[in-house]
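User: structure tokens for Iron-sulfur cluster loop, please.
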Amino acid sequence: MTQHTPRMARLIPLMSSVSGQDPAEISQVTGEVLQIVSDSLFRLTREHPRFRAPDSFLLTDTFSSEMTRKEANAFLCACFLEYRSGKTDVWDNVVFFTEEVLDNPESLWQEIVDHTQEGWDERFFDYNLHPEPKIHSRLYTIATLMIRFYAGDGRQIWIGYEQDPESVYKRLLLLRIPRSIACLIVGTLKDLGIIQGPFDIVGDIVDSRVLGRMICGDGSGITPMKARRLARMLSPEDPWDLDRPLYLIGSTWCGPGPKCRACLVKHACVFAVSEELGIRPDPVFRDTLFGKKTIQKTLKQWQNPEIYDS
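Assistant: Done. Predicted tokens:
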């Protein structure tokens, strides 16, 4: 049997006996879990370089903190094509499309809207940017909005807002892209040193599943908004610091069919410990984590205990 830390061993009986009628008991469990998960994730980034290397290491040979207009547009194009999907080599596809097909144009977005929507859709197989037609088609809408709002220059999204990640995020949402992609772009710009300041994790289905299992013992029912809130509690100074380890845990071990035995953070995961010991965290623990005022106060108290000490 896996050797658990003393702290986690002390948490196990509380997990199995917590009662919805005892807010103090729930508060104790909540604080314990958050601290354990936070410590474990940050230990992972310290001890394993792979978990602290940002996604942008893929870009180091191509992009820099001083992007040209062409580089910025190519970078954004790859992000809009969901480079984390794992369904295709997005970077290579974008490079081939911009340099070989379009002959390295000054205005990538204008080249796209020079098609009609129907004409663009018909070039799905010719351009081979993404295996899903809906993603290919969405790029046309984004291109029209890039021209309308930012004159076809991706740098205008962040120039003047380098110290304000939240504003960059809101400016990206004007392009009608999914919130998870907007978060990923802001985080990658942080990794590249183009913008500074704390920001949220992506909060996609992977992050939600990992945080749901580690903290609640159940990977379902954690929305992107709830996942981002949890990440803020785990890493108040900068939630983005946890995005890379959460993504790698979710894509390596914590998939729809979890591989808990191989996972490096199984000792700090409510789901993994519960499965190993044959117990289930009481449903009230999951159901009330976000729903009751007393629990919200508990989570805030863990993050800023001095506020409640007086």
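User: Anything notable?

Assistant: DSSP finds 17 helices and no strands in the chain.
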